[in-house]
């Protein structure tokens, strides 16, 4: 690890990164490791432990035991530890961002922002937790027909137990802490299963929590391929809640998981509706930022543009001018467009592009690919029979569908099996509200591209895009349940009565 000696503890002598259990960094008994392939070089960059089912069982046992005493730790102390972890995380922005660059080809500046955003999220969560969890309800019985004032009900929010967190590759640090911090402030323990691409960045982040001094067992991190240990984890009887972000895997998990609360943030096909009166410069820059930042590998990326025919030529021209200015290359150089995460993702994107070509879409740029690197591509005149009209490429390729009225745009958006976010560009706020109300998505942005943040805003999808709602406050609430204590009086008692 060289200069980053604080992280030496997390890697074994054979350069395989350890997993974290019982407050210690450990080597798996499996004797096996899982490779993390650098998307840019397409060579193995890191190795992580392939944890066994027996090790998962032990992690669950210690998480369960640790949670009991963690829940008895005063709320202000839990918050204090989270603030400490946030500070340590931000202090180690550079080595963690370097891992993100190598593991998931995130442009260098965005990688650093992900770490800072994560530290801020942890601190905000600590602040919000002491407020949200510090309050309960007091109810009296005589508000319900037939009752005298003989019962006082006190409610408070109590932890669920062990929360299983499974984030995706595109934000392995940020979408991990967005689950870890609310779980911990609410008095739960957490078992993290990071994405394989991104696992080493996540292990570095977990070490920051270790350095902050969290009690052993309160946080654990097991590594291994989701396809191998995923089912064992999600169906484990020791798990009391699952918070998952990713693709269709989430739908499969929701069918297999037991009777426990689920928070699922899955895919999206976020539509961008452009009306005739839209500010086309604003729309074009939002489309480029929304559709192509991190090479389109965001669930909230603009994934289909639905533009009124009368302004379509002008909009497409403006978008193309901006696309021509994007830099394409390695994440180390902080290029705008960097290699997509795996070769199979690149192949999938290419299949969508070839399908559109075969069916007659207009290519605004020549299709170009080298390894996992795909040049930004706008496909105009996309029709309903093309796969790209409906499927999410999770890459730097964006379809444009020309529409003749707003209803057509709304109809296309609502015909999708996804419903994460959408956006509408118009100067007419009344139309914007009507369209927003008609769009079947968890969020609609007016005159801006879809986005999850700021991280305290509610964030949710409908249909195949998810279950429940995220955002700091919603996540804290979701990771608790209500406990009532009812005081029964011998006779009706009215205050001051
Ligand atoms: N709505 C949202 O907020 C987001 C949605 N996404 C969606 O996710 C997809 C791409 O992300 P990607 O990371 O590849 O998604 P995946 O669903 O493939 O993986 C997400 C996580 O699930 C794990 N996993 C895989 N199989 C299982 C299993 N059987 N049981 C439990 N966990 C499992 C993965 O581990 P491993 O890496 O080891 O396989 C990873 O940690 C896109 O479709 C995108 O739309 C992505 C980001 C955010
Ligand atoms: O998972 C995702 O892709 C994110 O939740 C999107 O977050 P962003 O809008 O901040 O990029």
Automatic annotation (TrEMBL):
Top EC class, one word: oxidoreductase
Protein name in UniProt: NADP-dependent glyceraldehyde-3-phosphate dehydrogenase
Active site: 265
Keywords for the protein's UniProt record, in alphabetical order: Cytoplasm, NADP, Oxidoreductase
Subcellular location, record wording: Cytoplasm
Sequence ranges assigned to domain Aldehyde dehydrogenase in this UniProt record: 27-484
Family recorded in the similarity comment: Belongs to the aldehyde dehydrogenase family.
Gene3D superfamilies cross-referenced by the UniProt entry: Aldehyde Dehydrogenase, Chain A, domain 1, Aldehyde Dehydrogenase, Chain A, domain 2
One Gene Ontology cellular component annotation held by this UniProt entry: cytoplasm
Species annotation: Artemisia annua (Sweet wormwood)
UniProt GO molecular function: glyceraldehyde-3-phosphate dehydrogenase (NADP+) (non-phosphorylating) activity; lactaldehyde dehydrogenase (NAD+) activity
The organism's place on the tree of life at top rank: Eukaryota
